[in-house]
Amino acid sequence: MSSDVKFHHRQNNFGGHDSICTACLVTVACVEDESEFAYRESQHVCDSINLYWASQDRLSVLVADEEAAAHSLSAVKLSRPS
Ligand SMILES: [Zn+2]
């Protein structure tokens, strides 16, 4: 797999943690213990179809990134089609 793939970690609504691939935007793991991320992420390979959709929807990365969202609420509104 590509070694330059990065993952965004965030707390989910169920008290656990999600790991989202920043390249293809797929949630690669939903775990209770963040120590499980390393294995799941090491097994992840981006699907070319998901990479395509991610390239078409780059703004959703900002929505997934809670820090970015906190700094720019207007960007969140713009990137969420109604
Ligand atoms: Zn990926």
3D structure, described in words:
It is a single chain. This protein has one domain. The protein has about 80 residues and is of the alpha+beta class. Strand 2 and strand 3 form a beta hairpin. The mean pLDDT is about 80. It has a 3-stranded antiparallel beta sheet with strand order 1-2-3, covered by helices on one side. Helices cover about 45% and strands about 20% of the residues. It contains 5 helices and 3 strands; from the N terminus they run βββααααα. The protein binds zinc ion. Zinc ion binds near residues 5, 23, 24, 26 and 44.
**Can you give the mean pLDDT?**
79
In whole angstroms, how far apart are the ends?
36 Å
Assembly state here? single chain
Number of domains: 1
Bound molecules: zinc ion
Helical content (DSSP H or I, runs of 4+): 40-55%
What is the global morphology?
globular
Sketch the topology as an H/E string, one letter per element.
EEEHHHHH
Uncertain regions spanning at least 5 consecutive residues: none
Residues in β-strands, percent = 15-25%
Strand order of the largest sheet: 1-2-3
Number of helices: 5
Largest sheet: 3 strands, antiparallel
Structural class comes to alpha+beta
Number of strands: 3
Task: Please tell me how large the radius of gyration is.
Answer: 13 Å
